[in-house]
Amino acid sequence: MQKPKALFCAPLLVALAWSLTTGTAATAQEQSGKVIPNAVWVGADGKFESDPDAALVQFGVSAQEEKLQDANQKATQAAEQIRQLLRANGLDPKDAQISRFATQPVYDYKNPKRKLVGYRVDANISIKLKDFSKIGPIAQGLANLDVTDTSISYLLEDMDAAKIKAVEDALHRAHNEANAVAQSSGRALGELSYASVDTYEQQPVRPMMAKATAMAAGAAPPTTAEFSAEKITVTAHVNALYNLK
User: Which fold has domain 54-155?
Assistant: First the structure.
């Protein structure tokens, strides 16, 4: 994204700033289209990058049988296998969360009478991992179970602190740009009169992992082995109005 150039005035945005000519607050209607003298308006971008501190593993359980009781039983068996996998890797099944559980009839819509052909049970499960060494074994274990739509994404839990650092970087850049404008015009940069801030969190792509065929122990490392987690990037944009001395 191209960085906005520093300007001595911005009529549309000046409406939000303190009136330097009268010393009183003015509404947007009063200030719209007016030029604020002895001031410089700048816009700047900042960012903060950090290694993730958590990983979110998401997957689903889906079972379909002619009878609802059989579908429930099949889903229950799959859930028990997941609990065993978590325990085997030193994780408490209580740390896993179910975001959706649903049972529904399945119809054959090609049949004019919409014939009932069975029942399906679906559940969406997720677990947050702090120990990244467990990601590989969990991913490999899920690939060998009857689960669907497995995905792994990395997170930064203290996102508020990251946003503050991104804003600080943007404000620092804005101050430097405004100071450059002031010096080039033979003036000195005064105090900050107004600022607006927007922050953006990078949304990681969560591709679905294809279900792998069961492999013999030690035949190959897990898919995620030896790869580094993608850094979390938070960006901020600042619009700032500085007085000129």
Answer: Alpha-Beta Plaits (3.30.70)
Residue of higher predicted confidence among 26 and 54: 54
Distances (CA, A) of 229 to 55, 144, 173, 197, 241: 9, 23, 29, 29, 39
More confident residue, 111 or 7: 111
**In which band, very low, low, confident or very high, does the pLDDT at 200 lie, cut at 50, 70 and 90?**
confident
As annotated, the residues of the chain forming the CATH 3.30.110.170 domain(s) are 11-48+159-203+234-244
Take residue 98 and report the two structure tokens written for it. Answer: 């179910």
Largest CA distance in the chain: 85
User: What stretch(es) of the chain map to CATH 3.30.70.2970?
Assistant: 54-155
Q: How far apart are CA 22 and CA 187, in angstroms?
A: 21
The architecture of the domain spanning 11-48+159-203+234-244 is: 2-Layer Sandwich (3.30)
Write out pLDDT tens, residues 96-126: 999 999 999 999 888 777 889 999 999 999 9
Residue 197, both tokens: 């801030």
- Residues ≥6 apart with Cβ < 8 Å to 141: 85, 88, 89
Q: What is the pLDDT of residues 215-230, one digit of tens each?
A: 334 455 656 666 777 8
